[in-house]
Design a protein that fits this description.
single chain, 120 residues, 2 helices, 12% helix, globular
Length: 120
């Protein structure tokens, strides 16, 4: 899989978390967008685009959980959440890059490093 990653300029808007409703049992899930088609080559084709959505636990869609506890956290890449940049480790970036092309219907992920309010 030949690709080049792109770094987001430091002047780009950085993703800011919104608070969860403490009166409800809520969860944040990352909804991964599929990559643009090969015929639609865009400058940001290698960027990972997604949304961070909030759900009540009892109505959340099916999702895959991934614990982000492996690898070197000093080698960061960026994903685009909404229209904001979020730093993630290279290993998570590689996973998301590969998973977004998967034909599985599951598009929601719970990734502790992304869905919690934590920073690298």
């Amino acid at each position: 899989m030949a690709r080049s990653t792109m770094r987001i300029p430091r002047t780009a808007n950085v993703y800011q978390y919104t608070k969860l409703d403490t009166k409800k049992q809520q969860i944040r899930l990352l909804k991964l967008s599929r990559p643009p088609s090969a015929a639609n080559v865009l400058p940001d084709r290698n960027m990972i685009h997604c949304e961070l959505e909030t759900f009540d636990l009892d109505t959340a869609p099916e999702y895959i959980a991934l614990s982000y506890t492996w690898g070197d956290a000093s080698n960061n890449q960026h994903i685009i959440v909404g229209n904001k940049a979020m730093a993630v480790g290279m290993n998570l970036f590689d996973f998301l890059y590969a998973f977004r092309s998967d034909d599985a219907n599951i598009r929601h992920l719970w990734i502790d490093q992304v869905c919690f309010m934590v920073s690298l």
